From TrEMBL:
Keywords: Metal-binding, Zinc. The lineage of its organism: Bacteria, Pseudomonadati, Pseudomonadota, Betaproteobacteria, Burkholderiales. The keyword Metal-binding applies. It holds the Pfam family GFA. This is GFA family protein. InterPro entries: CENP-V-like, CENP-V/GFA, Mss4-like_sf. Residues 12-128 form the CENP-V/GFA domain.
Length: 151
């Protein structure tokens, strides 16, 4: 479900799997920021993310059950629901003024809605490389099986 905001960006409603954590989000550039990452943590987490500015996420319920996970430099802040374990969003190391938001938490959205998702090269983080750039490691592609009806 979405509603409009004063700056014309849609307001998305989102929640963790169990519904204890609920939040709204305004995306920085719609769904054009969709991505995955191949760093050690993201590779295991497997989420598809989109970007939102720090001020554009409002936790409506369950802030007290959000658990913070940090590793390596401790710069990125990964939040997940301590009840169901679902990653909701994280403050990005590469863009600390933004959150990466788990698209699977956004109401009516799924990682499988995207035919192709770029995978950022996160094994060598842009902040750790000369020139601060990072490339695309590859693409994650999804093609629905036409023999299985969608619900």
């Amino acid at each position: 479900m979405t509603e409009n905001n004063l700056d014309n960006r849609p307001v998305y409603h989102a929640a963790c799997h169990c519904g204890t954590v609920r939040f709204t989000v305004l995306l920085t550039d719609g769904l054009r920021t969709v991505r995955r990452c191949n760093c050690s943590y993201c590779r295991m987490r497997g989420a598809v993310a989109v970007s939102a500015n720090l001020d554009d996420i409002k936790v409506l319920q369950g802030e007290e059950v959000l658990t913070l996970y940090q590793f390596n430099t401790g710069e990125a802040k990964h939040y997940f629901c301590s009840c169901c374990g679902i990653y909701t969003f994280h403050q990005r190391r590469s863009s600390p003024h933004q959150y990466g938001v788990n698209v699977a938490c956004i109401e009516g959205m799924s990682p499988f809605d995207f035919a192709e998702v770029p995978v950022n090269e996160g094994r060598s983080h842009p902040k750790d490389s000369v020139g601060g750039t990072s490339g695309i490691a590859g693409w994650l592609r999804y093609q629905a099986n036409p023999e299985i009806p969608e619900n």
